[in-house]
Design a protein that fits this description.
Blueprint: E1 2-6, H1 10-21, E2 26-30, H2 33-42, E3 47-51, E4 53-54, E5 57-58, H3 59-69, E6 74-79, H4 84-92, E7 97-100, H5 105-120, E8 127-129, E9 132-135, E10 140-143, E11 146-148, H6 152-163, E12 169-170, H7 171-179, H8 190-202, E13 208-213, E14 217-222
Parallel strand pairs: 1-2, 1-3, 3-6, 6-7
Antiparallel strand pairs: 4-5, 8-9, 9-10, 10-11, 12-14, 13-14
Helix pairs in contact: 2-3, 6-7, 6-8
Length: 223
C-alpha cells in the first residue's frame, strides 16, 4: 500500500514516515502545498495523511483537489487544529477521518488501517479470494490452509493487483505504485518481470493467475 504524508514539521514528518515504514507501507512525503499538489497530479495513493496548515497554502484546498481528481484512496486530515469547524470542513470535503495532533503512533497505525479496510476490503480484517485468505495486518497469505511466504515486493504487487482486480494494470502504474515516484529514473521495467515470475510460482496452488497483456501490463484473473 502506498501512502503520501503531507506535513511541514520535519520532526513530525520523520516520525510518521518511520512509523508507517515499519508497517511495510511504501511512504512518500511532501512538505509544502506546491510539492504535494504536483505529486497528487501525477501519482496515485492508497491513503493520504494531510496537514491542514501548510507554509504556502491551505490543506483543505488540496483536499478539494484530491476529490476533484477522482483517483480514489483515503484521506486522513492531520492537524493541530482540533475545532469542530475544521473537522466539519474536512469531512464535508470528503475526508475519511480526522486525526488531531499530538497523537500516538499506535493511533496513527490504527486510523490508517481502518481507512484502508473500509476502502479496499469492505471493512474486513482479512480478504478471501478463491482458495486464498490474506491477512493484511500481518501480511500473511494462506492457500488451502498452508501459509505461503512472499517477499515484500511480491506481496505489494499482489495487493496492488487485488485492489485493481477489475482493471488492466500497466507496467508503469505497477512500478510507480510499488517502487515509488523515483521509478521514473529507471531505464526499463525489466526488474518487474522477475518479481511477476516469482509471484506466479507462489500462486500456482491458488486459483489466482496473473495474465500478461503484451506490451501493456498485467491483469489478475480469479478462477
Amino acid at each position: 500500500m502506498k501512502i503520501l504524508i503531507i506535513e511541514d514539521e520535519p520532526e513530525m514528518l520523520d516520525n510518521m514516515r518511520r512509523t508507517l515504514e515499519r508497517e511495510h507501507y511504501n511512504v512518500e512525503t511532501a512538505t509544502n502545498f506546491k510539492t504535494a499538489s504536483t505529486k497528487l497530479g501525477v501519482y496515485s495513493y492508497d491513503c493520504i495523511l494531510l496537514d491542514i496548515t501548510l507554509p504556502d497554502g491551505d490543506g483543505l484546498e488540496l483536499l478539494a483537489q484530491i476529490k476533484s481528481q477522482g483517483k480514489g484512496g483515503g484521506v486522513i486530515v492531520v492537524s493541530a487544529k482540533d475545532s469542530l469547524d475544521d473537522r466539519l470542513k474536512g469531512l464535508n470535503l470528503g475526508a475519511d477521518d480526522y486525526l488531531a495532533k499530538p497523537f500516538h503512533n499506535a493511533e496513527l497505525n490504527a486510523r490508517v488501517k481502518a481507512v484502508l479496510r473500509r476502502l479496499y476490503f469492505d471493512g474486513h480484517k482479512h480478504i478471501e479470494i478463491g482458495n486464498m485468505v490474506i491477512h493484511p495486518e500481518n501480511r500473511e497469505i494462506i492457500v488451502d490452509g498452508d501459509q505461503i511466504e512472499f517477499n515484500r515486493k511480491e506481496y505489494d504487487i499482489l495487493m496492488y493487483m487485488i485492489t485493481n482486480k477489475n482493471r488492466l494494470v500497466t507496467k508503469a502504474a505497477l512500478a510507480e505504485h510499488v517502487w515509488g515516484d523515483h521509478i521514473d529514473q529507471a531505464d526499463s521495467f525489466d526488474f518487474i518481470y522477475s518479481q511477476i515470475k516469482n509471484l506466479r510460482k507462489k500462486l500456482s496452488k491458488s486459483n489466482i493467475t496473473v495474465e500478461a497483456v503484451y506490451g501493456v501490463g498485467y491483469k489478475l484473473n480469479i478462477a
